[in-house]
Write a structure and sequence with these properties.
- It is found in: Cytoplasm, Cytosol.
- By secondary structure, the chain is an alpha/beta fold.
- Helices cover about 30% and strands about 25% of the residues.
- It has a nine-stranded mixed β-sheet with strand order 2-1-11-10-12-13-14-15-16, sandwiched between helices. A five-stranded parallel β-sheet has the order 4-3-5-6-7.
- A hairpin with a 2-residue loop joins strand 23 and strand 24.
Length: about 550
Amino acid sequence: MEQLKPSAANSSPLTPLGFLDRAATIYGDVPSIVYNHTTFTWAQTHRRCLQLASAISSLGIRRGSVVSVVAPNIPAMYELQFSIPFAGAILNNINLRLDARTISVILRHANSALVFVDCASRDLVLEALSLFPKHHTQRPLLVLIADDSVENADVSCSGDFVDTYEGLVSKGDPNFEWVRPISEWDPMILNYTSGTTSSPKGVVHSHRGIFLVSVDTLIDWAVPKRPIYLWTLPIFHANGWSLPWGIAASGGTNICVRKFDAGIIYSLIKRNHVTHMCGAPVVLSMLTNSPDNKPLERPVHILTAGAPPPATVLHRTEALGFVVSHGYGLTETAGLVVSCAWKEKWNRLPATDRARLKARQGVRTVGMAEVDVVGPIGESVKRDGVSVGEIVMRGGCVMLGYLKDPEGTANCFKNGWFYTGDVGVMHEDGYLEIKDRSKDVIISGGENLSSVEVESILYGHPAVVEAAVVARPHEYWGETPCAFLSLKAGLKEKPSEDDIIKYCREKMPHYMVPKTVVFKDELPKTSTGKIQKFLLRQIAKEMGSSMQSRM
């Protein structure tokens, strides 16, 4: 056949930014954003984003500049996911629960030119800027986002801030021609890893990658037209798994909420007829353990990821009327690229078996080319659900690389694959199951044991709300499992350390049983609910080597 070549007519760069233009055309009078007493339509959101992009450009922000945002899930946060790249800039959402030192490091590493600051984070960001070295000449401009719902917030636009958010919107041109990428490989997003490790890295994604993962999530989750989406997942975590652009593509309604509170979430679900929401497994635990929980009036689809969810938690969540979908992704994939695709025949199984199957991560989504589990020399492990290896993948959703870190990029890109650092098994039916992060595997007496498996059993204890298992040094065994637990409130009789250990001995091999149990009111977590095991490992290490062996 004749060799035909691409032309300008068929090689327009892929970008998710055009989804907003389309939404304004088709769903112009449909509510796009609902927050407290504020409601915008898609036509209004489109106009506001163009005005803001125009105003950003007027501040001297040019193609390739990094613009950061420190804000919760409020309307401004949603609009900025379009407005910043509309101006040709690279969008950098920052976790607002980080400390000032870490935010300072991120702003300097990203070389941010402009920062949008929520009024509740004003002091935090100003403190972060005060930590800049004196010789650091480029300090970012600041724009203040006001919010009437924040009590006693300082919303004055002092000398530290060049303008307010709404001030910029009012000054912008609604007919602004947004800056299209020259190449679909142009960087669009800069995300920093979420903080389960002590040193976050800057992950760079292209327009092409964000386009693919946005569409991929809609297809895999079977999101219908005009969903009612509740923002329980922070947008600053991997851009809300790329759903800001996906919800625009589907003409849905974004229900914004400043802070996660189970009682408020149940109220918003009922008031707004919510159909979809996302969250880490800890969000499921909070919903099921809330005193406000009661069976839903209509099903709500909830997508969970971030850590392997215990089967017990999945079962409790679905008993309330939530339809749980489970997936797996990383900051480096900008969203979920593996999902536990459900088979109709599984509906005939007992509830406990269904929950166990749903706890697996699953198979690659349609937008991810390949996913595998490999051994030390890159060979595929046996598909027997037992042979352990590192999870690798390749496809269009994988990041361009780590900012200013060629060594880190090279270490995870090997032999044509992205090495995730997660340990898993492949089942005979082709479904993937995570067993642990490579650094979380505990080696006790030469035996590798999965902290995730131990945690799953601990979650089955009726008194346990949160569980995390890490290694504690042991002079004889090398390492032994140390369990950190938080218990349900209002218990008449709390279990002791011996009670928990006895419970575990009845349900797992003795070498896997925690030798130490530590009770805490709440386990340290990232903003998205991931338990920060690196902090718990530090605590376990500081406890010193354990001589006692409970066998």
